[in-house]
Design brief:
Blueprint lengths: L2 H9 L14 H6 L32 E2 L3 E3 H4 L4 H14 L2 E5 L5 H15 L3 H5 L10 E5 L13 E6 L3 H4 L10 H26 L4 H6 L2 H9 L3 E8 L11 E4 L5 E6 L5 E5 L2 E5 L6 E5 L1 H6 L9 E3 L7 E8 L27 H10 L6 H5 L4
Parallel strand pairs: 1-10, 2-3
Antiparallel strand pairs: 3-11, 4-5, 5-6, 6-13, 7-12, 8-11, 8-13, 9-10, 9-12
């Protein structure tokens, strides 16, 4: 890349469409052949990853964590009570777990990862058709974490697809690459069924058995889970010329009940555990599942929505697909009355998706301040 092009990127000037080069995404910058990280992506030293961390998937036991593993087949079998106990411990102590024997065929997993990667290999002009600042758009291609507010951009592009009900949203999905709609809908249906099975187990692990569900406001919760929101986010992290200067995603927590993350073989996810950042080793044919803000609120703080972030590397392109699930966007989330008593009063304010949108559009999101803002002090 020529020095003059580097200077142009650093100028941060808008083009005739009112865009800076950064608004076009890191995939666009990579296609331009940049050889260094522009200042727009350079995090303060205090916010960067430890420079001793792994690079290009070299394993270091000092920075790696083995997440608890939940075997779905065992959860459905005679060993259910023990698996539920393990699930409780995972949600309380880690806020994350690996899900194995989930029943989604490996070829379906490979297909959705492949079409996700192919989307970001389309010409910029094709990807740009789906770029919009509207956070409520059923399909949105963008960059960074919140490009409308981020002072420093992260090294990530994304494609967000609303998924439920599919009949409402599928006509808005990209028609290129040709297999995206087929692979995406097939995957979205299966991951939704998986989420509902997990939520049944989580409600049981919280002591909210079927009779309790009918008695309290959680009867509506059951219906809300089945008719709730589903957002599929395809994350693209191109290789980065100076990965120690930036992040793929800054520390954050997820707003919903559960997120089911599908990773390719490239490591990058880190979680905050026992006061330090640790990397999650990709486990073939598994999902990383994490507790979201809404589940922490619903459980009245028993299950933890944990900070996590993403690192990038100089060697490998990384793709992940996050499926975020919660109640319908119009629903109110509050602690379950069954989990509140005199010794354990309600710790959170009622919240909804509008509150979340107003928060992230009014400030530069840092860490998990939205969840902190819902706590009763």
């Amino acid at each position: 890349m020529s020095p003059s092009r580097d200077v142009l990127l650093e100028s941060n000037k808008e083009d005739e469409l009112g865009e800076t080069p950064y608004q076009r995404g890191v995939r666009y910058l990579s296609e331009c052949g940049i050889t260094r990280v522009p200042n727009k992506y350079v995090y303060p030293l205090s916010d960067r990853a430890d420079p001793r961390r792994e690079e290009c998937n070299i394993v270091d036991d000092n920075f790696d964590v083995k997440l608890p593993t939940i075997d779905l087949e065992q959860l459905k079998g005679s060993n259910r009570s023990q698996v539920l106990s393990n699930l409780t411990k995972a949600c309380e102590e880690y806020g994350f777990f690996q899900l194995t024997n989930h029943g989604i065929p490996s070829e379906d997993i490979r297909s959705v990862i492949d079409v996700g990667k192919l989307f970001f290999e389309l010409p910029y002009e094709e990807r740009a058709k789906y770029m919009t600042p509207d956070l409520r758009s059923p399909v949105r291609c963008g960059t960074s974490f919140n490009q409308n507010k981020d002072g420093v951009f992260c090294w990530r592009d994304f494609l967000k697809l609303s998924c439920h009900p599919l009949s409402d949203f599928l006509p808005f999905w990209p028609s290129s690459p040709p297999d995206l709609r087929h692979a995406g809908t097939n995957y979205a249906k299966q991951i939704r069924s998986l989420y509902l099975m997990l939520m049944d187990a989580i409600l049981e692990s919280l002591g909210l058995v079927e009779n309790d569900i009918r008695e309290d406001q959680s009867k509506d919760l059951k219906n809300g889970l089945e008719g709730g929101s589903q957002l599929m986010v395809v994350n693209c992290y191109p290789s980065c010329p100076e990965p120690d200067l930036t992040l793929g995603m800054p520390p954050h927590s997820d707003y919903g009940f559960l997120t089911l993350l599908l990773q390719d073989e490239v490591k990058g996810l880190q979680i905050q555990h026992e006061g330090k950042w640790v990397s999650v080793e990709p486990l073939p044919n598994s999902f990383v599942v994490n507790v979201g803000d809404h589940l922490e609120i619903f459980s009245n703080g028993r299950y933890k929505s944990v900070l996590h972030r993403v690192l990038v590397n100089s060697c490998k392109y990384r793709i992940s697909i996050a499926s975020l699930h919660s109640l319908p966007f119009t629903s109110i989330v509050r602690p379950s009355p069954k989990l509140i008593n005199q010794a354990n009063p309600s710790r959170y304010k009622d919240t909804d998706f509008d509150s979340f949108l107003k928060y992230i559009t009014s400030c530069e999101a840092k860490s998990k301040n939205f969840l902190e803002s819902r706590k009763i002090t």
